[in-house]
């Protein structure tokens, strides 16, 4: 899907601190691509907005009154994409399960906000792709008229974010719209291992491992409980 000039991305801000909400509103208003549907200060109101409107992006503070941000997210059956705002570092790991686009630490600087929003727009514009062909050394992914050739040996890990995947390679990250299970089927299980519903790693690229975590490219990735028994490295 390419974003047409006429349609704006709809968003809501879920934040109970008035000043923080105002700062975000100011940042959003500077971006012509966004239409802010509402600001709200609690999850109950946010939930009713999500039922009433088609929301593309939710800015979500984790420390909300009554229902906390992550608990609220877990209850949503079809959540929009989410950018989390928080004053606390320790929540990033919990978000692995919840398809978070990005984490903004408060107070949020404007340039960091724009980076998070670019990530969101990139996902919204990622095209559906087909896995054309795979052999022992390469996979070919076709997107429109473009064919992308990816050398399997160059892949460090593959990360899924809902219907998208990020393929992290030595030359950078390729983001495409494809379920992680689809790419998993075409990878050699002797080299690649699924360690979590959101992660496939190359066994050749593992730097550190423990019972609950594998480190690749300096990034600590969690091992999902259901995958533990099947991981042979």
TrEMBL record:
<protein>
    <submittedName>
        <fullName>DNA-binding response regulator</fullName>
    </submittedName>
</protein>
<keyword id="KW-0597">Phosphoprotein</keyword>
<dbReference type="InterPro" id="IPR011006">
    <property type="entry name" value="CheY-like_superfamily"/>
</dbReference>
<keyword id="KW-0238">DNA-binding</keyword>
<feature type="modified residue" description="4-aspartylphosphate">
    <location>
        <position position="61"/>
    </location>
</feature>
<dbReference type="GO" id="GO:0003677">
    <property type="term" value="F:DNA binding"/>
</dbReference>
<dbReference type="InterPro" id="IPR051271">
    <property type="entry name" value="2C-system_Tx_regulators"/>
</dbReference>
<dbReference type="Pfam" id="PF04397">
    <property type="entry name" value="LytTR"/>
</dbReference>
<dbReference type="InterPro" id="IPR007492">
    <property type="entry name" value="LytTR_DNA-bd_dom"/>
</dbReference>
<dbReference type="Pfam" id="PF00072">
    <property type="entry name" value="Response_reg"/>
</dbReference>
<feature type="domain" description="Response regulatory">
    <location>
        <begin position="10"/>
        <end position="121"/>
    </location>
</feature>
<dbReference type="GO" id="GO:0000156">
    <property type="term" value="F:phosphorelay response regulator activity"/>
</dbReference>
<dbReference type="InterPro" id="IPR001789">
    <property type="entry name" value="Sig_transdc_resp-reg_receiver"/>
</dbReference>
<feature type="domain" description="HTH LytTR-type">
    <location>
        <begin position="139"/>
        <end position="201"/>
    </location>
</feature>
């Amino acid at each position: 899907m390419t974003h047409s000039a006429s349609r704006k991305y709809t968003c809501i801000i879920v934040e109970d601190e008035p000043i923080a909400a105002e700062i975000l509103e100011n940042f959003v208003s500077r971006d012509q691509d966004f239409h802010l549907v509402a600001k709200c200060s609690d999850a109950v109101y946010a939930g009713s907005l999500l039922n009433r409107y088609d929301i593309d992006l939710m800015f979500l503070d984790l420390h909300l009154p009554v229902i906390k941000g992550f608990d609220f997210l877990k209850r949503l059956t079809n959540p929009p994409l989410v950018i989390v705002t928080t004053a606390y570092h320790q929540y990033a790991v919990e978000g692995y399960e919840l398809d978070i686009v990005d984490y903004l630490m408060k107070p949020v600087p404007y340039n960091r906000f724009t980076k998070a929003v670019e990530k969101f727009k990139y996902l919204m514009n990622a095209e559906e792709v087909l896995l054309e062909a795979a052999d022992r050394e390469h996979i070919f992914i076709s997107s429109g008229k473009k064919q992308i050739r990816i050398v399997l040996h160059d892949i460090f890990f593959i990360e899924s974010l809902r219907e998208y995947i990020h393929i992290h390679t030595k030359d950078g990250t390729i983001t495409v719209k494809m379920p992680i299970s689809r790419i998993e089927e075409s990878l050699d299980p002797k080299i690649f291992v699924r360690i979590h519903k959101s992660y496939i790693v190359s066994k050749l690229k593992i730097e550190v491992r423990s019972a609950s975590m594998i480190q690749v490219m300096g990034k600590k990735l969690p091992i999902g409980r259901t995958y533990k028994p099947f991981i042979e490295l």
